[in-house]
Specification:
The structure is a single chain. By secondary structure, the chain is an all-alpha fold. It has a single domain, classed as YheA/YmcA-like (YheA-like fold). The protein contains five helices and no strands. Helix 2 runs antiparallel to helix 5. The longest helix has 29 residues.
Length: 128
């Protein structure tokens, strides 16, 4: 069926895009970087354990502030790691391409741009 052929073509185009390739290289680089993986693991474990503590209840204001500070410190370490930041930026660039493709598909299916815009300025309340 032609629609499935087009879907395969789109999938191949996505995999061959610079954004996808860049993201996959950044992902592999991150997975091979011991420091980056350690920081991500520590942050994940801290979020989980502190989340469980909060869900048990009876967490006072002082402890909540300690939890917030610990999470902020761990998050700052993650976001200051160049390898992690490179991967996050590559993911964002790739996601932007996916979002644009979804908007194009949505427009051709519904006749409306995402957000309810019909594409006609005469019916618009103002986007400018």
């Amino acid at each position: 069926m032609e629609i499935f052929d087009k879907a395969r073509e789109l999938g191949e185009a996505i995999v061959n895009s610079n954004e996808y390739k860049t993201m996959k290289l950044a992902e592999a680089k991150q997975e091979q970087d011991e420091e980056a993986m350690k920081l991500l693991q520590e942050y994940s474990e801290l979020r989980k354990s502190l989340g469980e503590e909060i869900n048990k209840g009876d967490v006072g204001k002082e402890r909540m502030e300690e939890i917030r500070a610990a999470l902020e410190e761990a998050y700052e370490k993650v976001t200051n790691n160049d390898v992690i930041v490179e991967y996050i930026n590559a993911q964002r660039a790739f996601q932007a391409i996916i979002d644009q493709m979804n908007a194009i598909l949505s427009y051709h299916i519904t006749g409306q741009l995402p957000g309810g815009c019909s594409g006609s300025c005469s019916t618009c309340g103002g986007c400018h």
